[in-house]
Amino acid sequence: MANVIEESKSSRATCRTCRQKIDKGVLRFGEETPNQFNEGEVSYFWHHLTCAAGKKPLLVREALTAFTGTVPDRPALEALLSNAKPKAAAGERPYPFAERASTGRSKCMQCDEAIEKGALRVAIEREVDTGTFVRKGPGYLHSTCAKEHTGDAELLAKVKKNTPELTPVDVEELTKALS
Ligand SMILES: [Zn+2]
Ligand SMILES: [Zn+2]
């Protein structure tokens, strides 16, 4: 499947994302789709480039590498693409956040002891050096070790902001541990 980015040749297409007309001359993103009337031929689902960037960032990024023309407001498009990322990858959220450990396998980065299953732990971003490249992933801390490890006076506020689903009991426990 090859998707395209091109200048709209007419103003007949309608954006599949926002349902508005795509004006002639503006950049549009075409998602290749098999033509249901002529087998072997393809047709496109068209989107405004900016609409597609918010909805299908990975596909747009891919098409963008093959696009040789000029994107009028490239920084704005790049911003749209990177902001769209957390939604595209489910489960991704900003660090630090808090959660109940789903297993007893994680180890605290501060005290090196295992974090018990069901215990409230704080996840922070950690760089893992695999030998060939550096990967970013979560590092875990006992809630009681988190403040010492990060030295961050704002830690509690940040965790609360990034973890809106915490229960009042969790928040109370965290507040005690982090202050
Ligand atoms: Zn649109
Ligand atoms: Zn610890």
Question: How would you describe this protein?
Answer:
This protein is an alpha+beta fold and 179 residues long. The chain folds into 2 domains: 4-88, Zinc finger, PARP-type (first zn-finger domain of poly(adp-ribose) polymerase-1); 97-178, Zinc finger, PARP-type (first zn-finger domain of poly(adp-ribose) polymerase-1). It contains 6 helices and 6 strands. The chain has helices spanning 49-55, 57-66, 74-88, 143-150, 155-162, 168-178; strands at residues 4-7, 27-34, 42-48, 97-100, 120-129, 134-142. The strands form 2 sheets. The chain has a 3-stranded antiparallel β-sheet. Strands 4-5-6 form a 3-stranded antiparallel β-sheet. Helix 2 (57-66) packs antiparallel against helix 3 and helix 4 (143-150) packs across helix 6 (168-178). The longest helix has 15 residues, at 74-88. It starts with a strand and ends with a helix. Mean pLDDT is 89; it is low at 86-90. The structure holds zinc ion (2 copies). One zinc ion binds at residues 108, 110-111, 113, 142, 145. One zinc ion binds at residues 15, 17-18, 20, 47-48, 51.
